[in-house]
Structure formats: structure tokens, C-alpha cells
Design a protein that fits this description.
Layout lengths: L2 H17 L10 H8 L8 H28 L2 H7 L2 H11 L12 H21 L7 H19 L17
């Protein structure tokens, strides 16, 4: 068995294990979308509403696994057709809202997501660039930006849980 075939089998086993907890797909029905948006009521007891939201969370988890599966196995051209800034910006905006920055609620989860985007984004831009075009000054600026992102995301944690050690800097 080739290494590539073995890696593929490991990935398939991983996704099978991840999907084992649900039989549902990651796409909402029209009725469920209406309920989520509040345009169709969720009648009944509070426990029925809790069950509904648990079901929604399960669907979203499955959808994220579907997306990971797609990104793992689809061709670059298929990924590029779907993963456009037009498609992704609303998701990024939903994850990290910036409307009325003074009113944005300080949430560690959102800070960690923003930090992950910054970290992966700078690493991609750095390593995808032409090496000759990157000066030591650029490298230092990227590392300072990564360090600042780490510092700012750590500031969301309680004082005793903060870890200001810069990780993931460009070597």
C-alpha cells in the first residue's frame, strides 16, 4: 500500500469517525431555516425549543465537518470556485463582528478565532510570497504583527491565565 493511499484511508477513517455521532447532513431544510430565523415559530414547551437548538447545533457541526471533508478531498479548482471572498466574508463577519467596535462584546472565543485568522493569514502570505521580495524588515514586521495579535488575544483572558509567549513566529 502506498503512503498516499494509506494517508487517504486514514482521512476517510477520520471523517467516518467524526460523522458517527450523527445521521444528519449539514444543510438545513427550508422549514428549519425559517425556525432559526424566527419566521416560523417553535411551538410547545421550552424543552422542545432546547431540543430544536440542539438539533441545529448538531447540523452545524456536521456542516463544518462536510466543509473540512470538501477542503481535504476536492481539487484546488473546485475549492477556488466555492471559497471566494464573496462567500466567505459573511461567515468571517458573523464569526468576528466589527460593527460599532465600541459596542463589540469582548469574547475570548471570538478573539481566538480572530487570532487564528491572523496567524494563518500571515503565514500563508509570507510563505506564498516570492522569497527574494521578503526583506528582514518585512519578516520583522510580520513577526511583530503576529506577536501583537497574540498579545491582544491574550488580553481577553483573565490575568492569571494569560500566556504572552509569542508562538508561531516566522523563523
Amino acid at each position: 500500500m502506498s503512503k498516499n493511499q494509506h494517508d487517504t484511508e486514514k482521512l476517510i477513517a477520520y471523517f467516518n469517525k467524526q460523522f458517527a455521532w450523527t445521521r444528519k447532513g449539514g444543510i438545513f431544510t427550508q422549514s428549519k431555516r425559517k425556525k432559526i430565523m424566527g419566521t416560523k415559530g417553535i411551538a410547545g414547551r421550552d424543552s422542545k425549543k432546547a431540543d430544536f437548538w440542539q438539533d441545529v447545533r448538531d447540523h452545524v457541526r456536521a456542516a463544518l465537518l462536510d466543509l473540512q471533508l470538501f477542503l481535504t478531498f476536492a481539487s484546488d479548482s473546485d475549492i477556488n470556485l466555492v471559497m471566494t471572498i464573496e462567500n466567505l466574508y459573511p461567515i468571517i463577519h458573523g464569526l468576528i463582528p466589527t460593527r460599532g467596535v465600541a459596542r463589540v462584546q469582548r469574547e475570548l472565543r471570538k478573539a481566538e478565532i480572530a487570532h487564528a485568522f491572523i496567524d494563518k493569514g500571515f503565514h500563508y502570505l509570507y510563505y506564498a510570497s516570492t522569497p527574494a521580495s521578503i526583506t528582514l524588515s518585512h519578516k520583522r514586521t510580520v513577526n511583530e504583527a503576529l506577536d501583537l495579535a497574540n498579545y491582544l488575544s491574550q488580553s481577553f483572558k483573565p490575568e492569571k491565565e494569560r500566556d504572552y509567549i509569542a508562538r508561531g513566529l516566522i523563523p
